[in-house]
Description:
Blueprint: H1 21-40, H2 42-45, H3 54-65, H4 67-75, H5 88-93, E1 96-100, E2 106-110, H6 111-126
Antiparallel strand pairs: 1-2
Amino acid sequence: MICARKINDEKNVFAGFFSNSMYVSIVFTIAIVQAILTQFSGDIFKCARAGISVTQWIIVLVLGISVLPVNLLIKYVPDKFGIQLGSKEKQIEEGTLIHQFRSGRTVSITKKTTNRLQKLDSTIKNK
């Protein structure tokens, strides 16, 4: 979840992490609930009945934290080596446009959504 916050190859996934209190509370709530379920609901979820040991917790945490350096390494891999799903020509033929926002972020949206955004933009300008 932490790495998914930055989608434009931004390197520092923790930049502004604590600026959104709702996001931080959700992340910590998920972590706490997972720990409680792992330790105390072995009979219900068919996990370890007595919870997992300290060694197992260390293994889990190391594997979980290993996502951060792997994510950082992936950001240095050029896009030409990545997997391309579909083609831009096909997307445009099927009614999908590539739209670039003022922030420089490029996303793929439908023509219907583009029309709604243009109407909304003109409404705001008229007010």
